[in-house]
Amino acid sequence: MTRIEEFKNDIDDYEQTVHAIIGFINFYRWDDAKRSMRADTYVFQGMRLRPSAEYGKTTEQSSARTLTPDIAIFRHARSCVVAEVKKSFPEDSRHWHDDFSQLMAYDDDLEGWPTTNRRVSSKPFRRREAIPGRTQRNY
User: Fold this and answer.
1) 53 φ, ψ to 5°?
2) What is the pLDDT of residue 60?
3) Running DSSP on this structure, what letter comes out for residue 91?
4) Which CA distances in Å does 134 have to 61, 130, 138?
5) Separation CA 99–CA 87 (nearest Å)
C-alpha cells in the first residue's frame, strides 16, 4: 500500500468512527414514541470525570486521575452512559490491557456529572469484579 493509500485508509477509518459515534449518540437521543429527539438528553464528548476515592484505593487507578471517555450521555441520574469508541482491537492481544483497564475505570461512581452532588451511582450496574478473570486469559 502506498503512503497516499494508507493516508486515505486512515481518513476512512476516522470517518467511520465519527459516524459510529453519531449513531450511538442518536440511539440514546431518539424518542421512538414521539418520533423526535429527546430534549432531556445531554451529550458530552471529552467530558472530564474523576473516579471515586473508593475506586482509587482498591485498584491501580489513582483517584486523582481524570477520565475522559469519548462519549458521555446523561438523561437523569439513573440513565447515564460512558463509551469508548474503537474501530477494532489490535491483532496482538498483548496490547488490549490498556483498553480493558480504561473501560474498567468507568465502572465506578464517577464524579463530574451534571447532578447536584456531581455523581451518579453505578453500584446496581457494576461489572468490573467479573471482568478480570474473563479478560486476563486473553492478553
Assistant:
1) -60, -35
2) 54
3) S
4) 20, 7, 8
5) 12
The grid coordinates of residue 102 equal 480504561
Say which residue the cell 469508548 belongs to. 84
| Phi and psi, residue 129, nearest 5° | -65, -30
Q: How confident is the model at residue 55 (pLDDT cuts 50, 70, 90)?
A: low
Closest by Cα among 109, 104, 98, 102 to 50: 109
Helix, strand, or coil here: 75?
A: strand
Please name which of 116, 59, 47 lies closest in space to residue 83, comparing C-alpha atoms: 47
Mind listing the pLDDT tens digit for each residue in 16-36? 999 999 999 999 999 999 999
Reading phi first (left if > 0) and then psi (alpha if -120 to 50, else beta), residue 55 is in: alpha
Identify each DSSP E strand in 51-99 by its residue range. Answer: 71-76, 79-83
Domain ranges within the chain, ordered by starting residue: 41-136
